[in-house]
């Protein structure tokens, strides 16, 4: 009996999958901190600016932690306002965006839950926590006028629609999915060309496993922006959940074409290819996902081990599973993987 059940063992919690993709609705490459605090989780986000003018500077984002003895982490957001901190342990963190002379400084608190200890089929991937930071110009309340600022994802959106969208984002962060959907629908009634809202609506329907509604929302958003990486990735996962593997692979390949440097895009395409039993192609995608993640994506090694087990290449299967355990020594399935390694060593004799 293989340690991977190809017909079902690949699946992760839908909540964890969504946590990993919500943040990629922002376009462009993120300013990323690779040091972390010795863990495996990710805090990522996007800074939303109050006007549609292009930025002449990248803003600094700091991450405070009550458990980081080496001091605060810091990164410059990219020109689209995206940022990422990875390699984080569970604990309480504060994201701080330093507004400089033009904007108020913003602080957002995030709690990374402790590791799951109960039995879970398969392996648990890193958890992704996403936050949107809305900047407010200094002096705006005093009527001093707005400074020249950067490209805004809400530029041109009517104020009431933007307010509904912000409310939906907050509700989604609180886990109030149905209420978030209602606010997104209200935003879209006011402004049907609201690409961000269509993408987020698709994510919220995916949370509820309402795959047909998710697909319709994502189709509407992609008509407005056919190259939106986040929506393409989300749509690929919707189709994967529906069992439409060919269509899923097509959407994920389009996502990768937009952002070839995304570990997630290659990783999920690898899982789809496993479902299609295209193991050679799956191996390439999972290997690339691992490389792009800085060899920190433990679950890629897990499934590579399964591919090599399938080929009876036991030495390479052992190598991949040992890499998995080095990255995830306390994974819920760690003992089962250790037993598999022991069995594979016996087969080598």
UniProtKB/TrEMBL annotation:
Signal peptide location: none
SUPFAM superfamilies for the chain: Starch-binding domain-like (SSF49452), TPR-like (SSF48452)
Gene3D superfamilies in the record: Carboxypeptidase-like, regulatory domain (2.60.40.1120), Tetratricopeptide repeat domain (1.25.40.10)
GO molecular function, one term: carbohydrate binding
Keyword annotations of the record: Repeat, TPR repeat
InterPro entries, alphabetized: Carb-bd-like_fold (IPR013784), CellSynth/LPSAsmb/PSIAsmb (IPR051012), TPR-like_helical_dom_sf (IPR011990), TPR_rpt (IPR019734)
Pfam families with a match to the protein in the record: TPR_16 (PF13432), TPR_19 (PF14559)
TPR repeat residue intervals: 195-228, 298-331
Domain of life per record: Bacteria
Protein name: Tetratricopeptide repeat/TPR repeat
């Amino acid at each position: 009996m293989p340690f991977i059940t190809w017909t079902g063992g690949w699946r992760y919690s839908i909540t964890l999958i969504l946590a990993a993709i919500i943040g990629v609705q922002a376009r462009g490459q993120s300013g990323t901190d690779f040091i972390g605090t010795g863990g495996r989780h990710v805090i990522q986000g996007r800074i939303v600016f109050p006007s549609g003018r292009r930025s002449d500077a990248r803003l600094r984002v700091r991450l405070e932690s009550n458990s980081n003895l080496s001091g605060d982490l810091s990164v410059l957001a990219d020109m689209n306002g995206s940022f990422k901190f990875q390699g984080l342990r569970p604990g309480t963190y504060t994201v701080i965006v330093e507004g400089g002379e033009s904007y108020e400084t913003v602080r957002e608190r995030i709690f990374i839950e402790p590791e799951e200890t109960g039995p879970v089929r398969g392996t648990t991937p890193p958890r992704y926590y996403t936050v949107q930071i809305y900047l407010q110009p200094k002096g705006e309340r005093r009527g001093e006028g707005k400074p020249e600022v950067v490209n805004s994802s809400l530029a041109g959106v009517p104020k009431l629609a933007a307010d509904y969208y912000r409310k939906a984002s907050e509700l989604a962060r609180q886990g109030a999915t149905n209420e978030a959907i209602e606010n997104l629908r209200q935003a879209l009634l006011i402004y049907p060309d609201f690409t961000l809202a269509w993408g987020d609506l698709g994510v919220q329907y995916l949370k509820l496993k309402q795959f047909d509604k998710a697909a319709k929302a994502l189709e509407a958003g992609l008509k407005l922006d056919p190259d939106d990486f986040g929506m393409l990735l989300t749509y690929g996962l919707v189709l994967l959940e529906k069992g439409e593997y060919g269509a899923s692979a097509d959407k994920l390949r389009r996502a990768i074409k937009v952002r070839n440097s995304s570990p997630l895009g290659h990783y999920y395409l690898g899982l789809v290819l496993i479902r299609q039993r295209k193991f050679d192609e799956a191996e390439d995608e999972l290997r690339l996902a691992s490389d792009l993640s800085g060899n920190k994506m433990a679950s890629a090694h897990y499934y590579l081990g399964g591919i090599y087990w399938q080929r009876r290449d036991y030495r390479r299967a052992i190598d991949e599973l040992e890499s998995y355990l080095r990255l995830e020594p306390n994974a819920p399935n760690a003992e089962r993987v250790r037993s598999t390694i022991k069995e594979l060593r016996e087969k080598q004799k």
